Amino acid sequence: MKKRTIWFINLLTLLSLLMGSFSPLTVLAEAAEENIAYAVLGSTLKKQNIDVFTDSNHFGSVVKRGGREAWEMNPSLPSSRYMYVDISDSFGNSKKDGSVYEVEIDYYDSEEGYFVVWYDSVDYGTQIAKQITLKNNSKTWKTASFTLDNAGFSNGIDKLGDLKISTRERGTMLPSSGCNIYIGAIRIKRIPAANPLYIESYNDQPGNTYRWFDESKIVHNRITNVSGQKLDATVTYR
Questions:
Q1: How high does pLDDT run on average in the chain?
Q2: Which residues of the chain are modeled with pLDDT < 50?
Q3: At 13, which helix (H) or strand (E)?
Q4: What is the pLDDT of residues 137-157, one digit of tens each?
Q5: CA 201 – CA 205 distance, rounded (Å)
Q6: How confident is the model at residue 32, as a pLDDT?
Q7: Beta strand ranges found along 61-208 (DSSP E)
Q8: Under DSSP, is residue 109 helix (H, G, I), strand (E, B) or coil?
């Protein structure tokens, strides 16, 4: 296996500032926009550009917590220990068009436990996006947020989806959350062409060990313009 490192150069840093913050209060107003995806989980599934289901490929168990409906995840039940998010193919991915994705997940802070969010990444498959720890027992709704700048979104997680919410750390035989998890909504905002250059760096050395004793090491760099427009860029090698 060749060693490979992926970078994304952000030439449009100001874009995210110009687009403003991503608030739950504005999601429904922006829902008609093609760069917004959301799912509100309850007895009915209100959604745009994404589908959400449990690992049994069904709706989650609907409960009410803190005045709103949610899907309940039970780490001890195989049918509800995972939740998958399948994002519409029209929503793109980071390698195809340099998009960055801002993700928000509403959850109910009940007891002590945790959940892990996995995502389908470019070139590196399933990776952890964030682990959220519940320890305050505040009995209130909270929002976990994170940004993905190398999202593959090619249905690569268990061949079922692009995001996966898990009540277990890294597998079925490892520790699981100490409490049930309640998910109320998932929102994704796409910032197109935020990283218009896709850069791959790799060498020809097979295996997992560098030839540390070689004085000269050759590294190949491949730069791809994914913006679809002519760009002028300065690349610095270190």
A1: 81
A2: 1-22, 25, 27-32
A3: helix 13-19
A4: 789 999 999 999 999 998 889
A5: 12
A6: 44
A7: 61-65, 68-73, 82-87, 100-109, 113-121, 125-134, 140-148, 163-166, 181-191, 197-202
A8: strand
Asked if 171 contacts 96 with a C-beta cutoff of 8 angstroms, the reply is no
In the three-class reduction of DSSP (H, G, I as helix; E, B as strand; rest coil), residue 189 is classed as strand
Listed as own residue / partner, the contacts of 234-238 with beta carbons closer than 8 Å and 24 or more positions apart are 235/9, 235/199
Contact 22, 191 (CB under 8 A): no
Q: How many CA atoms lie within 13 A of 153 on its CB side?
A: 26
Beta bridge partners of 42: none
Q: Specify the pLDDT at position 17.
A: 37
230-to-8, 142, 168, 202, 227 alpha-carbon distances in Å? 17, 42, 45, 25, 8
Which H/E stretch holds residue 7? strand 4-9
pLDDT at 14: 35
What are φ and ψ of residue 86, in 5° steps? -105, 115
CB atoms within 10 A of CB 67: 6
